[in-house]
Amino acid sequence: MECISIFDMLKIGIGPSSSHTLGPWRAAERWIKELKDTDEFDKVESISIDLYGSLSLTGKGHATDYAIMLGLSGFDPETIPTESIVSIISEIKKTKTLIFNNEKPLTFNIETDIIFNRKFLPFHANGLTFTATTNGKNKKSTFYSIGGGFVVKEALLNSKKNFEIKCAFPYPIEKGIELLKFCETLDKSISEVVLENEKSIRSVKEIDTELKRIWDTMLECIYIGCHTEGNLPGGLNVRRRAFDMHENLKGHTPYTNPVEWIYAIRDTEVKFRQILKWVSCFALAVNEVNASLGRVVTAPTNGSAGVIPSVLMYYLVIENHDANFDDIKRFLLVAGEIGSIFKKGATISAAMGGCQAEIGVSSAMAAAALCELLGGTPEQVLIAAEIAMEHHLGLTCDPIGGLVQIPCIERNAMGAIKAINAAEMALDTDPKNVKVPLDKVVSTMWETAKDMHTKYKETSKGGLAVGVNLTDC
User: Fold this and answer.
1) DSSP labels for 235-279?
2) What single-letter DSSP state applies at residue 159?
3) In degrees, to the nearest 5, what angle opens at C-alpha 75 toward C-alphas 120 and 56?
4) How far apart are the C-alpha atoms of 366 and 166, rounded to whole Å?
5) Residues 267 and 253: beta-carbon distance below 8 Å
6) What tens digit of pLDDT does each residue of 421-443 get?
7) What is the distance between the alpha carbons of residues 405 and 464, in angstroms, rounded to a whole number?
8) Average pLDDT of the segment spanning 240-256
9) Could you tell me the CA-to-CA distances from 75 to 28, 51, 67, 304, 460 in Å, in that order?
10) In this predicted model, what pLDDT tens digit does every residue of 187-202 receive, in sequence order?
11) Strand pairing of 137-147 and 126-134?
């Protein structure tokens, strides 16, 4: 059985897309390792990259070319100063030179050495092939970015069997029914069962440190988005809305950092309509940062990175002013596990399943996590996830201009609101009366994904992507 850690579902990376940016970035790193492992790195004379399928059709809007060049240059998406990205790319373009793994200068022309093929490879919708020329001979290596920053090789015919993470959790979980069984047998909550699995591969101190780093990244992302004004890059001239919403919502309590900001929001008198606005503001903020090559947490993808942090912020500033790190920890543990169930049973790639695989999954993750913090039983937690996904089934991925801006940013706000509503409904639901279990909605989502026309799967060939005149934007 595939064992996926929550830290594989919640990864720190650079926007705007986990499958189109973070995945290709990690693929570039893996290719460099391949070359070094075979003692071919020092012999490389030139390199080129072919992009296929969705990576080709929406790659420029998703900064796939930027990500590849940064990965080939030896930069890490978790640590690279985001403010330096544009200057690094500009230098490569200007000098037509790429410092391969920050070690070896190579002649590199972005216009000719990154090829946007318009055809699909049979294995997966997101394919890319690296070619290295050594002694006049070409050596190729093909990778597939399968969503959420996960990268696989074409080793098996079915990407769902090409497990990147192999481990032996004490409580292996592939479906929701198995998770509930462990909760019942062990008399533990979902977060406690997930924690026991994580403890089998790392210490509690390491778990806490990494979860805190993930939350700090989420919080910083929200904070930056709420305090940054102007238009998003990419040519659509989309104005950032989180800044204006935040200005209208915030009170007069002074603050100088994100932590003080949380307390300032708590001190603000919040009415019902303002709750909706605050949640939307948090979600918009994250995805505006994501759309501008900022640092976010894939949850489970970059395109849906705003749902989970906005719902968690809702809990911290609206629901429970006494919340602490233990609450944040439980929330992220549950969210990560629900995401892994969807990845195993369906997909988290919009290029494979449409936006239901991104916003739908993130909404289900957030709904489940919030439900547990609000006192839901394990059964109710899964009901919350099911409700959230049920009302995202069939959601297409049709980004205008290939950019993760319209309709993607707003969808995060809608996904967050749905998650909160799903959690509340689940709390009032008797599990005995449930007609559609989580596992059924997971399998239905996968069947829907397979039936969905390719043009509605992150290709910018259908829906809003072709129904809107870009000159009007």
Assistant:
1) SS-PBP-HHHHHHHH--S---SSHHHHHHHHHTS---HHHHHHHH
2) G
3) 15
4) 26
5) yes
6) 999 999 999 999 999 999 999 99
7) 12
8) 94
9) 10, 20, 10, 24, 29
10) 999 999 999 999 999 9
11) antiparallel
User: 219 — alpha (psi -120 to 50), left (phi > 0) or beta?
Assistant: alpha
Placement of tokens 């030896």 in the chain: 74
Q: In the block, which residue shows the tokens 């002074």?
A: 254
For the beta carbon of residue 398, count every other beta carbon within 10 angstroms.
25
Query: What is the tens place of the pLDDT at every residue in 123-175?
Result: 888 999 999 999 889 999 999 999 898 999 975 444 444 444 455 899 999 99
> What's the rounded Cα separation, in Å, for the pair 300 and 332?
11
pLDDT band at 38 (very low <50, low <70, confident <90, very high): very high
- Average pLDDT score over residue span 82-100: 97
- Nearest Cα neighbor of 330 from 290, 372, 358, 297 is 372
Give, in order, the Cα–Cα distances in Å from 473 to each of 134, 230, 285. 46, 15, 20
Say how far apart CA 36 and CA 32 lie, in whole Å. Answer: 6
3-state DSSP assignment of residue 397? strand
| Phi, psi of 167, deg, nearest 5 | -160, 180
Model pLDDT, residue 268: 84
Quick one: pLDDT at residue 155?
58
Q: Can you give the pTM of this predicted structure? A: 0.92
- Residue type at position 421: N
Q: How many CB atoms sit inside 10 A of residue 273's CB?
A: 8
Question: In terms of C-beta distances under 8 Å and separation of at least 24 residues, what long-range contacts does 181-188 make, across chains too?
Answer: 183/378, 184/378
d(C-alpha 312, C-alpha 327), whole Å: 9
The neighbour count for residue 248, using CB atoms within 10 Å, is: 10
